[in-house]
Amino acid sequence: MTTINIAQPLDTAARPDNYITHTRGFMSWAFTLDHKRIGVMYLVSVLVSFFVGGVFALLVRTELLTPGQTIPGVTADVYNHFFTLHGAIMVFLVIIPSIPAALGNFIMPIMLGAKDVAFPRLNLFSYYLWIFGALFTVSSLLLGGFDTGWTFYTPYSTTTPAGGVIPALTGVFILGFSSIFTGLNFIVTVHKLRPPGMTWFRMPLFLWAIYATAIIQVLATPVLGITLLLLMVERAFNIGIFDPSMGGDPVLYQHFFWFYSHPAVYIMILPAMGIISELISVHAHRHIFGYKFIALSSIAIAIFSFLVWGHHMFISGQSPLLNTLFSLISFSVAIPSAVKVFNWMSTLYKGNIVLNTPMLYALAFLVLFTIGGLTGIHLATLNTDVHLHDTYFVVAHFHYVMMGSALIGMIGGLHHWWPKITGRMYNENLGRIGCIIVFIGFNVTFFTQFFLGSQGMPRRYYDYQPEYQIYHVISTIGSYIMASGFLLTAYYLLASLFGGRLAPANPWGGRSLEWQCASPPPFDNFATQPRVGDCYDFSAIRWDEKEQGYVVDRALDSTLNPNLAAKNSH
Amino acid sequence: MNIPSTIFSNLLAGDPREGRTLWLPPPDSNLAASSDQMFWWINVICYFFFIGIVIALVILVVKYRMKKDRPFRTDGPLHHLPLEMTWALVPLFIVIFIFYFGFRDYLNFMTPPKNSYEIAVTAQKWGWLFKYPNGATSDDLYVPTGRPVKLSMRSSDVLHCCYIPDFRVKKDLVPGRYSYLWFQTDDVTPAGWGHNLFCAEYCGTGHSNMNRKVYALSQPDFDAWLVAQSQWLDKIPEEELYFRAGPKLYARCQQCHSLDGTKGIGPSWKGLWARVSGGEGGDGKFVDGTGYQSQIGAGKQYQTPEDYIRASILNPGEHVVAGYANAMPSFKGQLNDKGIDAVIGFMKHMDEFDTKGKYLKEIPATPKVSMK
What we know:
The complex is a heterodimer of chains A (570) and B (372).
Chain A: H1 26-30, H2 35-63, H3 76-111, H4 120-139, H5 156-159, H6 165-192, H7 205-237, H8 250-283, H9 291-304, H10 320-332, H11 334-348, H12 357-380, H13 382-388, H14 392-422, H15 428-454, H16 469-499, E1 541-544, E2 549-552, H17 562-565
Antiparallel strand pairs in A: 1-2
Chain B: H1 5-11, H2 30-63, H3 81-110, E1 117-124, E2 127-131, E3 137-138, E4 141-144, E5 149-155, E6 160-164, E7 169-173, E8 179-183, E9 195-199, E10 212-217, H4 219-231, H5 241-244, H6 246-250, H7 272-276, H8 305-314, H9 337-348
Helix pairs in contact in B: 2-3
């Protein structure tokens, strides 16, 4: 092992050669095996999908401004295609791959001090599977679209005349494989590529979250594949599996579907929780509070996620005994979630909080996740769910969790690692303003929908009773506010690529390994195998005027300076 | 919690009842009271935790903001087992309590009393049919007050879901199975108004219009209504059927069949009679490519146009008109011969109705029939 010069920071000097400039040309990206480039390609693809899904969301909200038709030409059928595409794109193309495949791909190997993921070729393959899956899903539009909702409930999905159902199912089937391969790759990477000194309980919490996510991806996604295959067989060859007119059982489909799709909810939220652990700790410059409880609660959530799918089916005709068990187990998810929230808050205690954009997103996450989590109680409780099931209350609840938490966490992470990924700093003030606009717009849009739902408005309605209109108008205005916040965000992020200040290696004062290589990272991440200490120990971090960033004062760091190790009481 | 209710009850105009709150419509069934109570308790818990968390966050962020001239403080605790166990276990106990009460009342919801008044419900894209023990049928749901009512429900095509927000009840209708829903309401529905009944499980094009009204009548009123409802068609003389019963029966068809020539889920009824009887308007075609006139006429599958219409109502999938999907459910058992006569008469006299199905001439005063 190479000796480390204690006086010199490791690999922090910006080198002229980085992963972006290392090789040039289209082919060097298209066939790259570099996890960073694959991560960036995922990121761009996911953000483009987010834009498309967002356009459909705005179309849905605009159509709902008035009962009946609002936008000329948007009939009930067109509206049904809109909300289906919005849901399918946001779930399968945006939220599921956004954190693990895009940010995880880029950051995870660097956090491990590794040069790449365990299987770089598999990584590229899974990206292309994603592209093919996305193309299939979107191509369904040309073949008549699909109007089944993202849930593809039978027997509607096997009998609807819309011609795009099969290509859409094929697309989602392929996307599932992409997700499985990514998960597999990450599990092996975490197991095999951790650097010396990084025990399981020294891993950054983001890695714990990615690891827990990967386990769910590998175990749950095959069930989705099987289900969609059965659905295709039924639709194409009239073999009765789910359709009662051919001897099948539609409720069986719901069991299969939610056996994947409930764990999928945690595929979305767990990595965001991992990001929040990093964001809060780094931007409060404070050791994470209760590391083990946070890490183990990720695993607990991953395990519980497989045992609660039936809570989507309380009124489907499922037996009361099953409903009772699923209700009880669903409540257990409250415990690891509460542990995480309270531990994050305790991390702020006696911290050194800097309210920059990533921290604002982390705080927004805490507030929105609290609302999303607490309203889950209404829905897990059997008798109140009877009233609230399939109303806008559910729509509001899952948007608080899926968008307000998972996506806001992702965007917070994007801001956190933006200087690392692009090597540029964005405009901090615009970042804060953007975050606040999104936060306000989000709450105006979705908090209103809680009232809408508890007052009885069912979801997936094109036309509605006129008395609900006022809520719809407020909600739609909120969606426009939110959209303007996202447009501002897109603007300053893109602008930073061209005119942004060059990013230092460590702009925030982070302690994990990705902040110890240059921004953007060199092609091989680290010239030497880095030594790992406590990645939440900020005592050795100092601001450096010359760098215009933070540096690790190696003389003060116990893992690098053996003389201090004895004094370290933690 | 009732302060904002005045604002919101105004927003929800047209509802003559008292008691709407910010969160919930007035509770109008025996199950609503316990469901609402649960909802309020959960809300109180949510307010408590949410406000507590937000206040704590604000205090923490304000108090521990980094000061420029200070090196990082590192005196914060790294973990605290008793504290962490507390916030793992306290929520656990709270949710177990909530679970228990929700479970108890859910069992009540799942168990219809033995003496319930049973109404058969059939849902199909995109309408409801309610059938009462004496054979009467209706498109809107009429229930007696003061006794438990059990809906025995089935779907003839895809999943639907019967949802009555004011009663806080909801249940899926699964094709191939029966499902039950029960409630008891003690309040007579105010005149000129009805409770909403929604389809809450997505079922395609007409999903959002698959809603009807629920009227709760006192037992004597309900009995009277029931008798009138079971006989209304029988009391109409044959020659008046088409304008007395036709428009009312058409209400069940209007989701898919327009009267003004607009192409809906099914063909418009404008000019329909001319098409099928071979008059002006040309010869229509079926999906198999054959023309109407090759199927309709003496010696062919349908002896008369009337036979064809009747067959299309009872067995709609047999000959689907070109350009349309096989989307129509069968009305077998829902329309008797007299009802079918009324619909056929309505089609024959289309020029006497406006595009909404309103009869343009004056309806004769006799006979007295109780309108739906």
